[in-house]
Amino acid sequence: MPTNPTHALHDGLLQLFLRNGLWQARVYLGHGRYLWRSLKTVDLERAKQLGTQLFYETQFKLKAGLPTHQRSLDSVISEYVSWRERDNAQGKAAHNSTSKFTSDHMLRQVQRVVKFWRAYAGNRAIEVVDDKLLAGYVKWRKSYYEHMVELPRNAQLHPADKTLQWEIMLGKAIIKFAHDAGYRGNKPLPTFTFVPKVKRVRPAFTIPEYRALYRAMRAWIVEADNPRSRYTRQLLRDYVLVLANSGIRVGEANNLRVSDVVPFVDALDRHNVELHVRGKTGARVVIPRVAVAKYVSRVLALRESYSAHDRVFVMQDGGAITTLIDQFNTVLARAGCTHNSSGEKFTLYSLRHFYAVMSIRAGIDIYMIARNMGTSVAMIEAYYGKAATPAARAAQLGGHTYG
């Protein structure tokens, strides 16, 4: 609270008072709100000058609908990340991995990408981050790693268009967070969007490459010389097999819980499972190939005990999977198929693409494929339409003879 002596200026809307020997200012904002600011001076006359200047600046901001408490993009990012971390913890506490909570995968993505936004415009006031600044991010980000002698692990020299699109979306989400908190006054939200110019399709394995991968995983398990290594290698094998035979996303697999696996018997009297997954497109039920029931049972058998809330895929200590990409890259190298014939590197997401390609070639209805994978028919056509062989297309187009 203010301490004596105090000085009231501008009909009491500006109050000057001493605290710890320095003059402070309190400006009334209306509706019971105040702006407090240290004037950092011991001289009363200087304090009156600085206080009056602060008063008029504040009045101008109030009339213009500008925020009176200025925050930098960097400070807003810190608040935003803390909010996402609390949201993630709340989801874990509720044993709930639905899309309304921040998943572990999404939190890692946010934490990874905000470093670019901090470097690009962290010291800018949040209210000046507009369409022009957002558009400038694209060019800046494309050249971010060019000055580095050695790239950080798993970094790409030039980000893909889809990567840039996601990073712009995150930047706009941070601005919206600041806007909702009242940090931007009545300034309109930016409308800039980045539309990918190049459709980048991760490579899908050919059948010989996939077989080589499976043989390499099987041999790698046999060579394990301790229980911990054997567990991780067996986990990777079934993780890969589930991804390749269901088409679910890596994040969806990481968040899959025991209660999300529902056994059923299909019309051909085969035992299968429904996978109730939650991903970036919301919740859906996935019907994988029948072999997935065996793979899930096998990975659960690796553990002594588990509950319905436990994740299906966990590390040996029971912790959630962060990423298995290093182990996967090791197996790819052993299989001699780290890249496809065009020089494109295989990733865990290549298994999702392998599922899509094999489903198209098997003649499964494209609508059913899209629904099972949690994407659109247009995306399936755009990214995988070329995957169907001429023979498969001809067989479907040939159809029946009429008349």
If you had to describe this structure to a student in words, what would you say it looks like?
This protein is an alpha+beta fold and 403 residues long. It has 14 helices and 7 strands. The protein has helices at residues 44-64, 73-93, 104-121, 131-142, 161-180, 207-222, 227-246, 250-254, 291-301, 325-335, 350-361, 366-373, 377-384, 390-398, and strands at 3-9, 14-19, 22-30, 33-38, 261-265, 271-279, 282-286. The protein has a 4-stranded antiparallel β-sheet, covered by helices on one side. It has a 3-stranded antiparallel β-sheet with strand order 5-6-7. α2 runs antiparallel to α3, α6 packs across α10 (325-335) and α7 packs across α11. The protein is elongated and about 85 Å long.
How many helical stretches?
Answer: 14
Overall pLDDT, averaged? 87
What is the CA-CA span between the terminal residues?
A: 94 Å
Which radius of gyration do the C-alpha atoms yield? 28 Å
Topology order in helix (H) and strand (E) letters: EEEEHHHHHHHHEEEHHHHHH
Spans of at least 5 consecutive residues with low confidence? 397-403
How many beta-strand runs?
Answer: 7
In spatial order, strands of the major sheet run 1-2-3-4
The secondary-structure class comes to alpha+beta
The share of residues in helices is 40-55%
Portion in strands: 5-15%
Q: What is the oligomer described by this structure?
A: single chain
Label the overall shape.
Answer: elongated
Describe the largest sheet.
Answer: 4 strands, antiparallel
